[in-house]
Amino acid sequence: MEHFDLIVIGSGPAGRRAAIQAAKFGRNVLVVEKGRRVGGVSVHTGTIPSKTLRETVLNLTGWRERGFYGRSYRVKEDISAGDLRARLHMTLNHEVEVLEHQFARNKVHTVSGHARFADATTIEVEGDAGEVMQFSADKFLIAVGTKPFRPDYVPFDGEYVLDSDEILELSELPRSIAVIGAGVIGVEYASIFSALDVHVTLVEPRNSMLDFLDQELVADFTHQLRDRGIALRFGAKVEKITKNGPADCEIRLEGGRCIRSNVILFAAGRMGATPSLNLDACGLEVDHRGRLKVDPMTFQTNVPHIFAAGDVIGFPSLASTSMEQGRIAACHALGEKAYDPPEYFPYGIYAVPEISTVGMTEEEIKERGIPYECGVARFRETSRGHIMGLDTGMLKMIFSLKTRRLLGCHIVGEGATELVHIGQAVLNLKGTLEYFVENTFNYPTLAEAYKIAALDAWNRMPHLER
Ligand SMILES: Cc1cc2nc3c(=O)[nH]c(=O)nc-3n(C[C@H](O)[C@H](O)[C@H](O)COP(=O)(O)OP(=O)(O)OC[C@H]3O[C@@H](n4cnc5c(N)ncnc54)[C@H](O)[C@@H]3O)c2cc1C
Fold this sequence. Notes:
This protein is α/β, with parallel strands linked by helices. The protein is 31% helix and 25% strand. Helix 3 crosses helix 5. The model has no long low-confidence stretch (mean pLDDT 95). The structure holds flavin-adenine dinucleotide. Flavin-adenine dinucleotide (FAD) binds next to helix 1, strand 2, helix 2, helix 3 and strand 4.
């Protein structure tokens, strides 16, 4: 039986980064992946496909030009599901190729098959043809990610009633879609389909969405969705889902309201992909959502030689944070020096429009009793915004009145997920309002919104004695 310093189960962002980090330390590492190709949910059904779809939709619909040419403007009439898929496959192939090359270059061993624990230091890997191999290791990293939550009351059929993995394989563009679940995934797909002029209904049992974001941002975003004609059914519990025939689905809500649509996307949660790992054999337990508990600083589980990272350990369940978790976990597992991640990481939501945020929300700051002031800029106040024909988009910064430090930065609009990194750098380097007021920004850029928002706050803040 072959023995390794580290065995990584899963080749998504967490597993991939952990394996490469281990190889860079000169250790002998094996990655086990049950999918057809390496990359994980991130490359095959999650991050990259949904972002590619978004970009394709924005390009083919001419979304970014509609500020100038009107809502009926389209770069391509009659956009088909095939048009959307074509670019998807090209992007995914590039991603996988880069990853395979990275593994080869760093001498990371890979094996294709389904891993499960035989005992605490041995795994069995079952290949496609049913052959079983055994491997042992000193240390393990579980990075198996999640699967869509598929409750029994939803009549999934892979054609009209779909989960968020299946939505990418739509054979035809629907005229209407009902999205159940206004979490990040649901909101992203709802707004992407709406940009294609598909009629969208977004159903959410709670009375609000994206509660972890600054609420001023959510209010702006919600207004934009409504303005585009997306029907928001909040505080609406699903009672029954029926498929009446091809492209004819019905959702009955508690209270009697009914939603009819060609297609239903069920995007209400994901479950840790742990059931088939045979965790009993290594002494690990999972919670009700199949997730593992770890030490948040080291990613060590309560079985000392087994670590876990990525979506399988729960919040924030992002590819970006999973990569860092995997890398840090590998350092701790192999007894190498690891630096703790900074307190604040950015959160990106690739809806149309984009949302991105870093640091504390206004609600959190109030709760902590920190005296603060906010500054807001609208993208239409920037010259770049005029050039791009933007009539929406806002950037909000929150500063401490006492220290003048940036506490939070919240953006909705074009380029938000890129722009946020300026705020992130200033925040994590403990910068103050003065950074934005005193520095020159390229002109014309959307980044100028930082200066405008800072000046807006400066107007109401006590002025510095110099
Ligand atoms: C629709 C969607 C959009 C998203 N958009 C974004 C985004 O814009 N930005 C962002 O940062 N994040 C985004 N995410 C989240 C991101 O995809 C995840 O956070 C990330 O993929 C988690 O990485 P991971 O390494 O934990 O696991 P995954 O990427 O889930 O990979 C786990 C791998 O483990 C393999 N595996 C599972 N069980 C076994 C086993 N027993 N044996 C062998 N292999 C196994 C699986 O086949 C899979 O390849 C999105 C997710 C979804 C679903």
